[in-house]
C-alpha cells in the first residue's frame, strides 16, 4: 500500500508542475515577457496582475533606455552582436 501512495504522489506532483508551467506560460504570453522576468516581477511586487504588468512595463522601458532591447540573447561575448547571415 505504501508504494501505491508514492506512485500517486509522483503523479500528482507531475500534474501540479504541468499546471504551473501552463499558468506561467499564459501570463508570459499575456505580458509579453520571459518566465524569469515574470518571476522577478512577482518577487518584487507580489501576485497582483496589475502590479506585475506595471512592473514589467517599467522594466522594459528601463532596458530600452539602456539600449538593452529584446535582442539581448543575440549578443555574443563582450556584448558584440553576431553578424547576420545574408543569403541571396
Could you characterize what this model shows?
The protein is an all-alpha fold. The protein has one domain (2-65). The protein is built from three helices and no strands. The protein has helices at 2-31, 35-45, 49-65. Helix 2 (35-45) crosses helix 3 (49-65). The longest helix is centred in the N-terminal third of the chain and has 30 residues, at 2-31. The protein is elongated and about 55 Å long. The model has no long low-confidence stretch (mean pLDDT 76).
List the helices and strands and how they pair.
Blueprint: H1 2-31, H2 35-45, H3 49-65
Please give a handful of descriptors for the protein shown.
66% helix; 3 helices; mainly alpha; 88 residues
Q: Provide the helix percentage.
A: 55-70%
What do the pLDDT scores average to? 76
Low-confidence runs of at least 5 consecutive residues: none
Q: Give the N-terminus to C-terminus distance in angstroms.
A: 66 Å
Class by alpha and beta content: mainly alpha
Structure summarized in a few sentences:
It contains three helices and no strands.
